Amino acid sequence: MPPGGETVVGKSFRFVSLLLASLSLLTTTPLAADEIRSPSLTALRVDWRAALDQLRSEINSRPLVAGDFIFVPRRSVPPFDPRAMPALVQLNAVSSQFFTGIARSSVPVLLPFDAAAYLEAQRSGAPATLAPSRYQADFNPVDMFDAGPAGYSASFSLEPGAGDGMPTRVFTKPVEIQITGSALVYDIADPSGGKGEPVKALAALYPDLRKFIREGYVRYAFTRFGVAYVVSIQCLDSVAKARRLACKEAYPVAERFLKALRVAGGQRLRPLMDIASYVTDRPAARSADFSYRPSGDIIPNTGYRKQGGHPDAMAYAQIRFPLEKAPAFVHSQSYAKRDKDDGPTAYPWRDNFCESRSFEVWQCGGGYGHQGEDIRAADCPSPGDAREPCDPKQRGVVAVRDAIVIRAAKDQAATLEVNSRTEHIRFRYMHMNPQALNADGILNGRIVTEGEKIGVISNYLDHPAGTSMHLHFDVQVFTRDGWIWVSPYATLVSAYERLIRARGHEIGTEIAGTPQPVAHALPEDVVKPDLREGSSSEEN
Length: 540
Hints:
Layout: H1 11-23, E1 41-43, H2 48-60, H3 63-66, H4 86-95, E2 109-111, H5 115-123, E3 144-148, E4 151-158, E5 175-182, E6 184-186, E7 210-214, E8 217-224, E9 227-234, H6 247-260, E10 262-265, E11 286-292, E12 328-330, E13 359-360, E14 368-369, E15 372-377, E16 396-398, E17 403-406, E18 414-419, E19 424-430, H7 434-439, E20 447-448, E21 453-456, E22 471-479, E23 482-486, H8 489-500, E24 503-506
Parallel strand pairs: 11-24
Antiparallel strand pairs: 1-6, 2-10, 3-4, 4-5, 5-9, 7-8, 8-9, 12-15, 13-14, 15-22, 16-21, 17-18, 17-20, 18-19, 19-22, 22-23
C-alpha cells in the first residue's frame, strides 16, 4: 500500500474528523480554553493543459522522437482516466524507470531529467549503461523520490567539480538539493511568508520566482500549472567553509537545477478539496494522572534572548504517539535543571518547542528555537518493584502514520512523509542510533505503517551518549514557502490522549488567549545567535 493510503488503525477516526471538517464553518472561531483544532488546507487547481503544452515543446526539441508521443486527447474515456492523456502515459513509462511511482503524482512532476534526450540517445544506440546524470544536467541519480495524491518530493546531489561552467567552491562535499511540488498547501498565519527577491537570470523561465533564506535553507519558490513548487538547499548564510555549505555557494547549484527542470511525469487525478479547520474530538473519559502545561508555556527565560514560548493549539495531524508505550513525558532536556517544579519523567508535560537554539524557527520569538519537542520514556522500575520490568535501552519508537521514509545512510535523523489527498506533512525523529537504523532498513523509500516499530529511544548526537536518553520529535507542513517547522506540542497531546484513551488536564499559567505568530526579523535586522549556540555540544 502506498504511504498515502489508510490502515485500519485510525482510519475510522480520521474519516469522522474529515467529515466534521467538511461541515464546519470556513471561518475560524476563537478557541475555548483547552480546545485543540485541526489545520486548514487550500487545494490548488492543476492546469494540465499548460503542462501538456510545455511537455510538447520539450519533446519537439528532439525531432528524432517527437513523433512518438500522442498529444491528441482521447475523448472516448472519462477525463480522469489516464488514457485520456496518452502523452503522459508514455512519459510516465519512460520516467518510472528512474523515479518509481511517478504516475501517482497529482501534479506535473518537474525534475532535472530530460526524457526526450534520454529517448533520443536510446534511439541512436547509446548503451543502456550510461549514467542517469548524463540526462540530469550532471546531477547524481535521485536519492529520494515520493509521489502521491498531494504531489511529489525528490532530492538530488551534485558532486564537487561536476557541471560544465559551474564555479569552483570551498565546500568539499556533494551539495544536496530538494524539490517539492504540491497541490495542497497549509493555511498558516505566517507574517514571513511570501517574501523574497527575484532572480534576474531566471526571470524569463520563472516570472514569479522568489529567492529567500528561511529556516536554514535557501529557497526558490514559484507557481507553475497552478501548482506550488519549492526548490531548496540547506546552507549557512556565512563565509564559505570546507565542511559547511555557504548559501552563496549554493546559489549556482540551485540555479543550474532550476534551468534543468523538465516535465518528467505525473497524472491528472480528481481535484483535491479544501480542508476546513475544526475542533478535534478528544476522549470523554478523564485521566487520573496525565496533565500538561499550556502550549507555549516553556521554562521561564529559556527562549531565545529570554523570550517566551509560542502558544499554538493546533494538532497538525491525527497521529499515533511516537513512543510505543505509555507513560511518556514531554520535557526539556537542555534546561531541565531550571525547572524546579517538574521532573523529567513526571507529569505535567511542558512545551520546549521555542527553547533557545541557533535553529531558525518562524513561530518562535526572535526567529530561533528548538524546532520540536523532547520526549522521555518512564524510568524502568528498580528490582523488586511490582511494575512490569523493562530494558532502558529497548524502549520502542513507532511510526506515527503510514508514510515513506526520508533518510540517507549517513543521516542521524529519520523523517516520515505523508502524501495523501488530505495531508502533505513530515514527521522527524532524532537521537536514534544511525547504525541501528541502517541495520533495520530505515532508509530512503522504505514504506512504514502506523504503529510499526522503527527503532528504540537512544542518546545519539554526533556519537553515542551525546545527549540524554530521549526522542526529539518535530513536524513540518508544506506551504508556498516550502516545508516549515510548526509546533508539535498539541499534536502530541492529542496523540497521547488517544494512546491512553483518556483526556488530560491542562494546568498552569494561561499565557495567551489567541495565539499569534511571531515573524522573523527582516534580513538586514536579524540578530545572530550567540557564538556558543550551534556548537557541537548543542542538543536538539
